[in-house]
Amino acid sequence: MAQAMFSFAQSHEIDTPPPVAPRRGYWRTVQRRLRGDYVTLFFLSIILLLVLAAILAPLIAPFDPDKTSMLYRLKPIGYRHFLLGTDELGRDMLSRLIYGGRMSLMMGLVPVVLATCIGGFFGVVAGFLGGWVNMLIMRVTDIFYAFPSVLLAVAISGTMGGGVANGLLALTLVFIPSLCRVTEAATTQIRSRDFVDAARVSGASSLSIIFYHMLRNIMGPVLIYASSLISVSILLASGLSFLGLGVEPPTADWGLMLSTLRQSIYVQPLVCALPGAAIFIASLSFNLVSDGLRQAMDIKA
Amino acid sequence: MKNGLRAFSLAARPARPVVVPPGDPRDRGGPAQPLLLVESLRKYFPVSGGVFNRRIGDVKAVDGISFAVFKGETLGVVGESGCGKSTLARLVVGLIPSNSGSVVFDGDPVGGSNGLTLRELRRNLQIVFQDSDASLNPRLPVEESIAYGPRVHGVTRAAAKQTAHDLLRRVGLRPDLFASRYPHELSGGQKQRVNIARALALSPRMLILDEAVSALDKSIEAQVLNLLRYLKSHFNLTYIFISHDLNVVHYIADRVMVMYLGQVVEIGPADAIYSEPKHPYTRALLDSRLAVDPIDRIEAAPLTGDPPNPITPPSGCRFRTRCAFAEDVCTAKAPALGGWRDPAAHLAACHMADRQSGHSRAGQTLPATERPLVSIEARLA
Lengths: 301, 381
Prior knowledge:
The complex is a heterodimer. Chain A is mostly helical.
């Protein structure tokens, strides 16, 4: 009896039986879970199509997006060879939408990427160092937080004048505080975990701990949050160009197209709604893919 | 059946002499020199509040603790939650700075101009935490978690990986099956084995086990305890074993240190403390263990209420507010522990253990706990 109960005593010398489940890394598990999520895959393919169309615009656009025509103004969808009709200056809508996608996607991606790098840096610094550094950085972000983001973007690009570069800068500045917050929260949470202390006891420097241990843990939540900002960025950029602050005519841009076509809404309502539909589809796709990514990456042990 | 239960009890173990195997090249002061000497260690955490968030007090988490750990022994540290056990562990490895006090490792003081640096200390002194899951990076395969320490100290990638695989084998995990796994693919016991391997990766001379087995299932706990005993003899280790489980401490520890509100109340050889506690707090702790035999049960709770606030601890003896034998002398002055450098001494910081203290029971042993000998049939009736 007693002997049977003590049989585990030597267990450290006994090999564990082979496991049933095959081993799988984190990112491979995420991949596998995404593969089963058809909604996310569908919208991901829409994003890929949009990006592809933007890159290959000169090859696939049927007409020059800036070529005006007094004869064919505000033609309906499917009029002759104008697949999606024409705008108020007789420019082909399909070509303009394809070229406009270039600008809109850039306005959606570039500010978010820049803000992720800059805000992420400050967030990691604030979260890792804590104390008064954290206090300083987080209070500054609080000040930015006090303004509504649309107002802030309009104010910044309004002060600096229109143009694509100023629009990008304004959007980047708008996103930095929120990304800084998310990164700081993730960093603070990871920093308090025992494996960071264990690494420190191993004799590791702070930089080594940040790069080897913390970044790969912070990356997930920050990427999810950043991807959800892409659609916001596209919308804000459209808003800026609608107000005449971002892209300047005659450059094709969804927001700008929406703005210039609004006078013709009673003449060709469907054609006028097309840029809005494009913005809607793009931002919806980015949002849903971001959601799918969040779900796929939320792996509990 | 009763024999079976007794055999299963963790307290039943053969007596082991403390032997320092000769010829450890890392040994410096010889077997008589303590591996770790901690003197008057103090850690106060500031408490702020009020209108301007001023400092309004201190939590005296560790308040003047001195002890020695001798080569090759296991020092058990027990005490209820919040008594400062974990703070003590983190202070000793330098994870948090102390307010005052000194740590001496094998004759070398830590810190100061010509002492050991924290980095040198940590090569020799590693820690295993209670939460086996939080102690492992969830985004790293376990072999990389283990190899990280050697890598930081300049070992090549291949050599560090080899070390990791050897250690995995030592802790009972086959490297071909477990090395490239991620923590979420392991059970709690397996994770803690990996943590132990990680702690051993720098081939330290001493391990601090901070509640290292407390969160595990009982059967897994026993396995890991046996693993720890095996590793101790194999790697010539010295342990500080922190736990709130008195049975486990009795099983693994050679000497036991009892803490209460940031201070040491009793220290001595494990068998002496378990058979004849000198401090009423130790007695209460021992009485609070669950009895296996219904005849051994006691009627009254050995200890009631919570420990006093560590911001404003009681004057004199800190235990007097909950002590059945408290007298005026206990309020007036704090009892001292005495000669803690002696490896064989059984000491208690209690006026009853000191003949000259003026306590009415000074010099007497503690009265035995009342155990009403009532048959279980009578109780059930």
